[in-house]
Amino acid sequence: MNHSQRASAAYRTASMTVPPLHAVVMLYDGVLVRVRNAGLAAEQGDWARQFEEITRAIDLLRGLLSALDYDRGGDVARRLQQTYEANMKALMRSAGRPEALAMSHRIEDGLRQLRNAWAQIAGVPESPSLRAVG
């Protein structure tokens, strides 16, 4: 089973066990953990682990991408597609780069905003940034 198939299977499994909107929020949570882990691995110079975490984050973004309904979602679905694809590219560009931690912070911040928008719709708590402010 390739990465895309695993991502789609993860979404289908999650959507069968929890309400669909909760499954979307859970996938975002998974992406956020992987993006954070990738940034931390890069900060430690662990490029192999960074790449592994990036790959996992991209798999989850592909799961979100595969769940888009273009007929019902229209322009919103197309914008989400563009956002997911842009984040996947940004994650790949961050691999092995000295500024990978800062890049992962920017990616995480944007995805957290989307996650919290879905959380509000789903009626689940928002997720604050785990980074110290200051």
TrEMBL record:
Keywords of the record: Bacterial flagellum biogenesis, Cell projection, Chaperone, Cilium, Cytoplasm, Flagellum
Gene3D superfamilies per UniProt: Flagellar protein FliS
GO biological process: bacterial-type flagellum assembly; bacterial-type flagellum-dependent cell motility
Highest taxon in the source lineage: Bacteria
Keyword Cytoplasm listed: yes
Coiled-coil intervals, chain numbering: none
Subcellular locations according to the entry: Cytoplasm, Cytosol
GO cellular-component term (any): cytosol
InterPro entries: FliS (IPR003713), FliS_sf (IPR036584)
Sequence similarity: Belongs to the FliS family.
Identification of the protein by name: Flagellar protein FliS
Gene source species: Magnetospirillum fulvum MGU-K5
